[in-house]
Write a structure and sequence with these properties.
Layout: H1 3-25, H2 28-44, H3 55-71, H4 81-91, H5 95-105, H6 113-125, H7 130-140, H8 146-153, H9 157-178, H10 190-198, H11 204-208, H12 212-215, H13 222-235, H14 244-266
Helix pairs in contact: 1-2, 1-3, 2-3, 3-8, 4-14, 6-13, 6-14, 7-9, 8-9, 9-13
Length: 267
Amino acid sequence: MTLEEFTIAFESVKPQLKSYLLRITASVEDTEDLVQDAFIRASQKLDDFRAESTLKTWIFTIASNLAKDNLRAKKRWPESVTDICREKALADPDYFPEIAKIMESAPHTAFEIKEHIVFCLTCIAKSLPLEQQICLFLKEIYEFRVSEIAAIMQTTEAMVKYHLHTGRSKMVLIYEGRCALIHKQGSCHQCSELNGIFNPKQDFEIEKNKIEFAKKANDPDREKLLDLRLKIMKEIDPFNSKGAPLQLHHIQYNRTAMENYSEKNER
């Protein structure tokens, strides 16, 4: 494969690679750096590519290794991340002026419940051990087979299945006690709160019930509800969606808030 052929192939994979790296790093800046580093590293190792896997798998392997090196030293986020970041935002006098600037500079930006569901899933997933988070996203969002994930993670298929099972079980458990969309006693009401801020004239219940996930909120099979969340995430490109400017700001804000929270609790 020539460098020109590889560059064309890399560009075709790049949108998925960017969204994947954003979702595990919660940083636009780190994502951009990792995508560039992955391209350089892969282009330098083209002679090592033997087509034993797909080029997409090979690129994701290189990018995942770079991301894991970047993330190993960072603490995973607590399950209460939404509470912690909400309190930080409400106490921050600069938070809402920053949001207002985003809305002015990107007038077509809109808060949409589906996008907030994805944003919430991104943050909550960072409470999982890194291996579980990566395996879950690779399988459910980016549609890699278990054998391909094993190659990317440099582990066994049995270990990938274990990470998927434990990761899914943990996510179901977290959402059961937190999400007010699927559990009326849930502690997190961010979707309705933010909808009221950004869409004050919109009826939250009407908008919520347009989403298949919300329609099935009373389904006792919580695994299916997790699958619906993941399906929504699969359909949304965080860099090019209608609410991207807003959601990218929220992700970066939460990343900074959680880094400060970790430093404070280590003292």
